[in-house]
Structures are given as structure tokens and as C-alpha cells.
TrEMBL record:
GO molecular function: alanine-tRNA ligase activity; aminoacyl-tRNA deacylase activity; ATP binding; tRNA binding; zinc ion binding
Name of this chain's protein: Alanine--tRNA ligase
Gene (name only): alaS
Superkingdom as given in the UniProt entry: Bacteria
Lineage of the organism: Bacteria, Pseudomonadati, Bacteroidota, Cytophagia, Cytophagales
Cellular component, GO, one term: cytoplasm
Entire-sequence positions represented here: 1 to 513 of 910
Cofactor: Zn(2+)
Keyword NADP attached: no
Free-text remark on how the cofactor is bound: Binds 1 zinc ion per subunit.
Species whose genome carries this gene: Hymenobacter psychrophilus
Keywords linked to the UniProt accession: Aminoacyl-tRNA synthetase, ATP-binding, Coiled coil, Cytoplasm, Ligase, Metal-binding, Nucleotide-binding, Protein biosynthesis, RNA-binding, tRNA-binding, Zinc
Alanyl-transfer RNA synthetases family profile domain location: 3-513
EC annotation from Swiss-Prot or TrEMBL: 6.1.1.7
Keyword Coiled coil attached: yes
Main location per the UniProt record: cytoplasm
Amino acid sequence: MLPTAAHVRQQFLDFFASKGHHIVPSAPIVVKNDPTLLFINSGMAPFKDYFLGNKPAPFKRIADTQKCLRVSGKHNDLEEVGYDTYHHTMFEMLGNWSFGDYFKTDAIAWAWELLVDVYGLDKDRLYVTYFEGDAGDGLGPDTETQELWRKYTTDARILPGNKKDNFWEMGDTGPCGPCTEIHIDLRSDEERVAKPGAELVNADHPQVVEVWNNVFMEFERRADKSLLKLPQQNVDTGMGFERLMMAVSGVKSNYDTDVFQPLIQFIAKEVGIPYSGAFSSELLADSSPADDSTEANSQQLTANSSATAKTDIAIRVIADHIRTIAFTISDGQLPSNVKAGYVIRRILRRAVRYAFSSLNQKQPFLYKIVPVLADQMRGIFPELKAQQQFVQRVVEEEEISFLKTLENGLRRLDSLEEGFRQQGNRIDGPTAFELSDTFGFPLDLTALIAREKGLSVDEEGFQQALAAQKSRSRNAQEAEQSDWTIVLESEDVPAFVGYDQAEAPARILRYRR
Ligand code: ATP
Ligand code: MG
Ligand code: MG
Ligand code: MG
């Protein structure tokens, strides 16, 4: 029997409650009023103001599970989804925080206690990292963290890490500090003997994965790049819940846990195609640290793999994407043609296309999965259950709208394929634009299909065609409307008026003097 997601999540919250933490609900995944962020992408994002000192934290110790999305901006994991075992578009980040209270000693002691004593993970499978220091900054190695870990594990499992992985900064200026990550090696005993896990940490190995990051904010980065020691030291941690589930379940993929299995089983039954789960072995055979680029993997997978691997990938992608779609809509972001709304529309269309091409779903289908997810999450995220019908309606409308053009767009692509092969295996900009403009294919969808066919896309040419069309339509509008001009193309228009009616974004007209 797999451990249930509800139980494992609760164990985390109970553990930190027992250490004096106040448990708070997840903030909505959709960010309003922050020009730098469309979606919450880490557990600390909702607490930014406390770290910046703009507001006092209401409690010195907080813990929670935060809905996160990594599909745009600095963190974009979209391309990995379905191909690797442990990156999702939407995931839960479990976190514990200290706002000027405990620091490295307690954070490290509790992280170890939770993983080893509460969850019963084998300590010989755990690796930890510390910041190795950076010559450029004049900052030495974080020997304090290294020393603290020596109480719990051996030097062979305490690894130095570089600035990219082990030094966290909020932005160009502001709070920052070293971090320590905890990785788990889930390979078989023989594999572990053959090659020590230490060599695979941070090497994109599908079974040696990062589970938890503990950030120790002890500095402030000033505009002149210097570092100032903060008077108040903070702890900010983030643990990927789905990865934790993989570790405690002793399985090889996040998709084999109770978080994803109900969705996967439902999808497989609905489409009448079994999910083989052979994923792990197929993928493992295809990916080695020496050849770890996702693009390379996906191309190789597509070229080599059986029909089963293809349907498995589609099922995983859909199980992943429906979570993103459902949670963002229930948190207030409708699909649209601009900004955050377009990110959601792109993901939704990506899922529709996987269902259409790989699982033979010619009718709306994704909306049917929403109740399964809502029931699964009703204890921790009741907002989805409360809006289930609304979310279903929005998703179904989106599906209907895209299915009207998807098949023709795919046909158009196929008919031109020979020509692409003759022009350097590349889909030209005007065609990519036509696919977007006429058939509603977001550029990243065209790029995905191209990749599967071993083609590339002229993205620059696409942008040029798009700019040319924008300027044409602006001139035409201005001529037609004489005194009126479009001043804003915005999603900030009363909700739900235009998103499903046309491809055109809602417009606000203003009298031109
Ligand atoms: P990775 O190196 O695996 O991409 P990360 O270093 O980008 O992870 P952090 O920003 O440190 O991740 O986030 C904290 C934790 O959140 C990670 O240790 C991991 O467990 C989890 N996590 C990060 N990205 C994802 C994702 N796309 N899907 C699922 N879990 C994730
Ligand atoms: Mg990452
Ligand atoms: Mg990492
Ligand atoms: Mg990390």
C-alpha cells in the first residue's frame, strides 16, 4: 500500500507544529499586484515582505504547504514534465520559516529528525550540501553548516556546492544567504555500490534527486554588490512534496505516488489505454548524466520509444497539467490571451494536444479529470472542490474552442513538413505565426511538435511576423475608429467577458483628443 498524500503532508505540518510553528494555509497560486511575478514559484514568495522588512511577520515560526508553479520566468520546468521523474509545472512546496528566531542549528537538526526519524528514510541514501564559498565575493565556505551536518552524517555525504545551487538571493539586491540542500539516492543497492551517489548529486539523475532546500538568510546584498550581515537572521526552507512522497513510498517516480496515481488511473480508464508505468526503466535507459539535456532526452525518447512510452508520457503530462490548470483557475486566473492568462491557456492547449494526438481524444476530455483532483485535494485545498463546476466549465469551453482548429492546424503542419525538411529542418517564422494566428497554436506548442519531428522553429521570424501583424491591425483600427484609439490591451477587464469568444484580447477604448 502506498502511503497516502494526506497523511505524509500532515506529518510534516504536525512535526513543525510540535516545534512551535504556526501552521498557515497556502497563499493563492496566482499573484496579483506584483509586477515581478505572475505566479507563486516558491514557498517564500508570499512572505517576501517579512524578509524585506516591509511588514512584521505575525509569527516567528511558520510552516505550511504552498501551491507553486514553475512555468515562466526565472523558474521554468515545463519542458521536463512527463519526461523526467520529478519536475512538475504545479507542485506543493512544504516549508518551515524562522523570522529572526532559530537559525542553522535547529533547522538542520529538525530537517534530519523529520526525514530519518519521522519518515524513516535510510540515512545512507541521504546527501547534504553546503556553500563552498566564492572567490569573487570574498565569501568563505559555509563551514558552520558543514560542521553541523557532521553531527548527523559522514563527510562522504556532506558535499560542497557552488553559488548556483548553494547561495540564494532574492534579487539583484535584498536578503540572501547560503543554503544547504538535501538529496536522496533512490537507486538499487547494486547501483549504489557500483557508483557512489555523491557523484550524481545535482547531475540531473532521475533517481538521485534534490528533496529539500534550507536557506539561511544572513546577509543583505547592497546595490554596490557588497554583502551586509543582517541584524536578524531568517530561515526559509522548501521541500518538494511530490518528491518527498516518492522517497517515502520507495518508488522510482513522483508519478507512482498517491499524489498522481488517482489522476493517472482515471485518465487511463477514461481513454481506454493502460498506463504501463514502464516509464522509469525506459527513461533511465535513455538518460545518463553525460546526456542530460531534456531536449536531447525527449528527442531520443521520441525516436526510440515504443507506442507505450508515448501514451505514458501523454498521460503523465495531462496528469501534471490538469493540476496547474485547475488550481490557477480556482485561484482566480482565467485563461486568456495575455500575461498570466496566456500562460494558462498555453498549458491547457499543450494538454489538449497530447490528449488529441497521443490518446485519441477528439472531444473535450480534460474537464472530466477535475472532480478527481478536487476530491483528492478537498482536505488541504478546499477551494478547488468549492469551485469544481466553474472550473470544469472554463476548461471544457477552452477545449471546445481549441479542438475546433487543432486538427486543421496539425494537418497544415503535416502538409508542409516536406518543405521544412528541405529548408534546413526548420519551421519558418511566417508558418509558425500562421499556426498561432489561424489555428491558435501557441509558439511553444509548435516548438514541441517540431521537436518531436526533429525540426526547429524560427522563433525570431515568428516574432517579426507577430510584430508586423500588430502594427497592421493597429493602423487598421485607428483608421476605422477615427476618434477612438486602443490604449490598453489588457486582461484587467471585467472578468470572463471575452476569453472564450475570440482569440482577440479584450480591449479598452478611449476617446482620443
Ligand atoms: P531542481 O534543482 O531539482 O530543479 P531547485 O533547486 O530548482 O530544484 P528549489 O528552488 O531549491 O528547487 O526549491 C525547493 C524544492 O522544491 C526542491 O528541493 C524540490 O524538492 C522542489 N521543486 C523544485 N522545482 C520543482 C518542480 N518543478 N517540481 C516539483 N518539485 C520541485
Ligand atoms: Mg529547478
Ligand atoms: Mg537544485
Ligand atoms: Mg534547490
